[in-house]
Every structure is written in structure tokens, then in C-alpha cells.
Design brief:
- It is built from 3 helices and 2 strands; from the N terminus they run ααββα.
- The chain is mainly α.
- It has one domain.
- The protein has a two-stranded antiparallel ribbon.
- The radius of gyration is 25 Å and the shape is flat.
Length: 91
Amino acid sequence: MKTQTIIALKFLLVMTILTGIIYPLLMTGLAQLGFPSKANGSLIMKDGKIIGSELIGQKFDSTIYFCRDLLPLVIILFLPELQTMDLQAIP
């Protein structure tokens, strides 16, 4: 029983180091090599200063993003047989 516990703790330590340190560092390094601008957060530079990110404040052109609640969106996308229903009658 004591040897099983020692083996289990060693395995836990090895897996913690492997999945908690080595794997994240490897993936970060590969991302930096392959996609440096994306890996660093898609930063926007102006006059040598970081002024923001391309991922914040994205433009949404469709009115589908501005419905008062999600029920009309659910009906349009998933329940087309209910599209003739009067949506104003739903509280």
C-alpha cells in the first residue's frame, strides 16, 4: 500500500510538471514563433505606444446582435415553424 502511494505521488508530480509547466511553455513558444502578433494579443501600436487591441470593441453590423432578448433569435435560428408567431405578445 505504501509503495502504491509513493508511485501515485511521483506520477502526480511528473504530470503536474508536464501539464502545468512544460506543455504551456511549449505551446506559448510555438505560438510566438508561428503567430507573434496574435500570440501577443493583437495589439495596436501608435507612435510607439500600445493603444489597444484589435479584439476589443469589434464592429457588429448585423441587427441580430441588438435584439431585446434572445427569444426572437432562438425562434429565427432554431424554430422556423414559429416565425409567424406574434413576438410582441410574449412577455
